[in-house]
Structures are given as C-alpha cells and as structure tokens.
Amino acid sequence: MANTWELEIAERQRFQFGKNWQRFLLNVGEAQIRDAEASLPKMLDLPSLAGLSFLDIGSGSGIFSLAAMRLGARRVHSFDFDPDSVACARELKGRFYPQEEGWVIERGNALDADYLRGLGQWDVVYSWGVLHHTGSMWQALENVAGNVAKGGYLFISLYNDQGTLSSFWKRVKMFYNRGPVARFLMLLWYVPVFICGSFISDLLHLRNPLRRYLNAGRGMSIVYDWLDWLGGYPFEVAKPADVISFYERRGFVLTRLGAVGGRSACNEFVFRRSPEEEFSDGRKS
C-alpha cells in the first residue's frame, strides 16, 4: 500500500491531502471541534453517539473521529490512505485522548475489500468527501456498504455531478498536480477568482465578507478548502439519484439528503441499513 501511494504521488496522480491537513492542525481549536460535534448528530438525527461504534473512512485531520469520541462513541476506528493524514489523526488523539484504547488509528485503503472486511461492522460508518478521491468511487461505495451493521447508519458525501463543468474541474485538478509550476499558475489565477466570487456573493446576500475567512465550517478553513478543491485528485462525481438507487438496491433506506443543487460542492447522504437485508458477499452482523 505504501508503494502504491508513493508511486501515485511520484507520477503526479494524487493530491497530498495530508499535507493540507497538517497545515490546518496548526490552528485547529475548540470552535472547529464543536462545529464537528454539532454536525454529526444533526445529520444522523440522533441525540448523541453514546454507546455506538464509529468507523471513520478517510479520517483526514481526525477531527470527526475526535468529535465521535466526545459524543460518547464506545469505539472509534480511523483510517486513511494518506500517511500524513494518519499522523494528523494521531496528533489529535494525543492531544485529547492519549490513553484511550477504544480509538484506533491506522493506514488503510477503501479500495481494499479484504481490509474492510477485516474491520467488521459498525453502528455508524462515516466518510465525508473521501470516496470520490479513491480513483474508483463506485467500487469504494460498494466496499464500505458491508461495514454497516444491520440497522446502522452510513453517512457519506460525494461531489455533485455537473456534467461538462465537472469534466473541466477534473482537468484543472490534473494540471495542478503536475508540479510546483503548475500549482503556482493555478493559485495565481484561481485564488483571486475565488476571493472575488465570494466577495460578490456575500454582498448580494448582505453578509459580512470577512466571516467566511473566520469560519472553519466542517473543520477546514476556507483557504485550505481552496487548496483541497484545486488539488483534489483523483476526482469523480455522482448524481444524487444514482447514489440513492445504488444503495437502495443494497438494502439501505435514505434518511437524509443534503443536496447542493447545481453547485460545485458535495451532496450529503445518510442511509440506514435494513435490519433484515444481507449482502451478496455473505457478511453477517
């Protein structure tokens, strides 16, 4: 697995998300952690995660694994393909739960079906903004379904399919990852575009333009989010209806959808697995 990651980096086929998260962790604080804590039970429509097990697929900075711990999860397992992201999650654990044996952090690959099978099943499987960066999104969506316990929850988010515009952004991301010169050119062009676009939008909606730079949202500040967006490759997209149909055929029921309409952003899905359905690969609860 390490060789695969290093080869993809060397061949400029993958963005180093972990480097971005390392920069973010330098400034993460209680406000960002509270935001993460608030979003999980809200989307899952649960009062807390007390007594539940939580699998964080593509844990990134680790902030949502930390949130799950603070919300009372009895067991948390965090994994990420990027070793720098794994280091970020371990750093957060060291800050807040250094002796907690119920929180395990390791490297793993959402495309490795045997690895996922070995993790067993969980009450909450969480993967926000991750599976569309694996290089084989639909296979990853198939793999993670088997980790959801009967009656359990699957909370994922995927980039919205905008057709031709999505194809354009894919080419931008490929170019960004070609090397330092390409990154500089992309930042030189797009950061002013992002700033101007955000400023105009805020003025039209009578919002303070400075607030978006002070609000870290889902744990990622807007500046790091720009870097993540420009560099985020591999890159795949999906229409909400296709994702819903995919999981309904596998015994899941959609309980919440956070759709972004026609925007370049992530649609959020919360599915609940039927207490009766079994998967074709034979996994049992």
What would your notes on this structure say?
The chain folds into two domains: 2-161 and 235-273, Vaccinia Virus protein VP39 (Rossmann fold); 164-231, no CATH class. Strand 2, helix 5 (83-96) and strand 3 (103-107) form a beta-alpha-beta unit. Helix 2 (17-25) packs parallel to helix 5, helix 2 packs antiparallel against helix 11 (222-231) and helix 3 (30-44) crosses helix 4. By secondary structure, it is of the alpha/beta class. A seven-stranded mixed beta sheet has the order 3-2-1-4-5-7-6, sandwiched between helices. It has helices at 2-10, 17-25, 30-44, 63-70, 83-96, 113-119, 137-145, 164-176, 180-204, 211-214, 222-231, 240-248; strands spanning 53-57, 75-80, 103-107, 122-128, 148-159, 252-258, 266-273. 46% of the residues lie in helices and 18% in strands.
Quickly give the CATH architecture of the largest domain: 3-Layer(aba) Sandwich
Overall outline = globular
CATH superfamily of the largest domain: Vaccinia Virus protein VP39
- Give average pLDDT, whole number: 87
Key features of this structure:
about 280 residues; alpha/beta; Rossmann fold; 2 domains; 7-stranded mixed sheet; about 20% strand; disordered C terminus
In short:
By secondary structure, the chain is an alpha/beta fold.
Annotate the secondary structure layout.
Blueprint: H1 2-10, H2 17-25, H3 30-44, E1 53-57, H4 63-70, E2 75-80, H5 83-96, E3 103-107, H6 113-119, E4 122-128, H7 137-145, E5 148-159, H8 164-176, H9 180-204, H10 211-214, H11 222-231, H12 240-248, E6 252-258, E7 266-273
Parallel strand pairs: 1-2, 1-4, 2-3, 4-5
Antiparallel strand pairs: 5-7, 6-7
